Amino acid sequence: MNCRIKCASKALLVVVAIGVLGWVVMVLWNWVIPTLFAGAHAIDFTHALGLLVLSRILFGGFRGHGGWHGRRHWHKWQAMTPEEREHFKTVWRAGHDRRTED
Question: Which residues of 50-85 are buried (b: 16+ CB within 10 A; e: fewer)?
């Protein structure tokens, strides 16, 4: 029973978050875009959700940020010896410094 309540509350939270984000996109679009561009029109909530999904696909994808990938790297880091960690840091800093010089 406890698992059902947790799952239902998480699902409700996701639905509410999507609704709030859609509303924020709609309000920002209707506040900024018609003022800046003469031919632009105000959008409704469904168009705002579509715009939110489109921007997520184009700019963010649907993968998480961190999540399980970060844990995998953390376990790999924990398994390294101190010498391997120092070598990794040195190689990473050398590559990072080279990118900032370009």
Answer: eebeeeeeeeeeeeeeeeeeeeeeeeeeeeeeeeee
Residue 100 and residue 63: Cα distance in Å, rounded?
A: 27
Tell me which DSSP letter residue 66 carries: S
C-alpha to C-alpha distance for 16 and 72, rounded to whole angstroms: 31
**pLDDT tens digits, one per residue of 5-53:** 889 999 999 999 989 999 999 999 999 988 888 888 899 999 999 988 8
The Cα–Cα gap between 83 and 74 comes to 17
Distances (CA, A) of 33 to 30, 37, 40, 52: 6, 6, 7, 15
Question: Tokens for 66?
Answer: 């961190």
Q: Say if residue 12 is exposed, middle or buried (CB neighbours under 10 Å; 0-12, 13-18, 19+).
A: exposed
Are 52 and 25 contacting, i.e. CB atoms less than 8 angstroms apart? yes
